[in-house]
Amino acid sequence: MKPRFHDSIKYKEYYTRNHEYCLRKARGGRFKQKYWPHLTTKQALAEWDRLFAEQNGKCSMCKTEKSILDVDHCHKTGKVRSLLCNDCNTALARVKEDLTRVLNLAEYILKHND
After folding, report:
1. How far apart are CA 47 and CA 51, in angstroms?
2. Is the per-residue pLDDT at 107 higher than 90?
């Protein structure tokens, strides 16, 4: 059986030399499919770049500077809101974007903050 290209040493060498390009291209395809289906992959990457620059490379929630930020979107409407770090994006998902849960969580932290 002939090995697939992405299993070959040649591909691994290419990927190592062009790591950032490969990541960016893969990320652009995901962005286009999930968040901006009406845009081309190049336009979707440009939109991410615009948001990243607008936020000065910082998470919209915790304001921490990160090189990679996740696209945050409303799960009901699909509308893109901003870019968040992985921790904030995960936290938002864990509380199911429920304000009561968020307030209870804040109250809990304040109560047990020693």
Report:
1. 6
2. yes
Say which residues have a Cβ less than 8 Å from residue 92's Cβ, sequence separation at least 6.
61, 72, 84
Quick one: tokens of 24?
């960016």
pLDDT in tens, 16-44: 777 777 777 777 777 777 888 888 888 88
Segments making up each domain of the chain, as ranges: 1-54, 59-114
Alpha-carbon gap, residue 17 to 70, rounded angstroms:
25
pLDDT of residue 11: 66
* Euclidean distance between CA atoms 12 and 100, whole angstroms: 48
CATH assignment of 59-114? 3.40.1800.10
Give pTM, 2 decimals: 0.73
For residue 75, give Cα distances in angstroms to 5, 7, 72: 37, 36, 9
Tokens 């998470």 belong to 59
Q: Using one digit for the tens of pLDDT, what is the confidence trace for 74-87?
A: 888 989 999 999 99
Beta strands (DSSP E) in the chain are: 70-73, 80-84
